[in-house]
Each structure stands twice: as C-alpha cells, then as structure tokens.
Amino acid sequence: MHSRDVEECVKGLQQYVDIECAQWMSQFGSKIKLNETWLDEINDTFQLMNNDTQMEIETIKQKYMGQLTDLEGKIDEMEKLCDELEEIHDEIEVKIKLNQCK
After folding, report:
1. Average pLDDT of 5-34?
2. Do residues 57 and 49 make contact, with C-beta atoms less than 8 angstroms apart?
3. pLDDT (tens digit per residue) in 39-97
4. What backbone torsions phi and psi does residue 49 show, to the nearest 5 degrees?
5. Is pTM, for the whole model, over 0.70?
C-alpha cells in the first residue's frame, strides 16, 4: 500500500508540473507575440541605417572631433595670450604711475 501512495504522489506531482509548464509556455508564447508586434511597430517607426551610412557618419564624427580638439587647443593658446597681455598691461600701468611720480 505504501508504493501505491508514492505512485499517486508522483502522478499528482507530474500533473502539477505539466499544468505549470503548459501555463508558462502559453505565457511565453503570448509574450513572444507581443514582442514581435512591438518590433514591427518599431521597424515601421524607425528605419535602421545601412553599414555604409553608419561608416560615413562615423567618419564625419571623427572629423568634427578632430576639429573640436584643434579648436580647444587654440582656445587654450588664446587664454594664455590674454593672461600675458594682462600682465603686460599691469606692468605698463605701474611704469606710467612711476613716471608720473618723478
């Protein structure tokens, strides 16, 4: 009688597992369909670029990044020149004041 109880438990467990698996597969299938629909909507809304266009854009981006780096370097040079001009201006003011006192 004990083995019969075990068999009944195994059958009950198998039925439970089968029902759970069927429910999960159904949910998974419906999620796949929803994702396919969403992907179709995205494809209709957004057009992907081909590789040639992507490479062209990357080349243009790199060109502009190089120009930006050059511009930043020139700005740094101009800031240093401005600092030097301020120092020269301050020195000239001091010399003018000294000459006025004589």
Report:
1. 89
2. yes
3. 988 888 887 788 899 999 999 999 999 999 999 999 999 999 999 999 999 999 988 88
4. -85, 150
5. no
Show Cβ contacts of residue 49 under 8 Å, excluding neighbours closer than 6 positions: 57
Could you give the count of Cα atoms lying within 13 Å of 27 in the half-sphere of its Cβ? 6
> Is residue 47 helix, strand or coil?
coil
Q: Note the maximum CA span of the chain.
A: 127
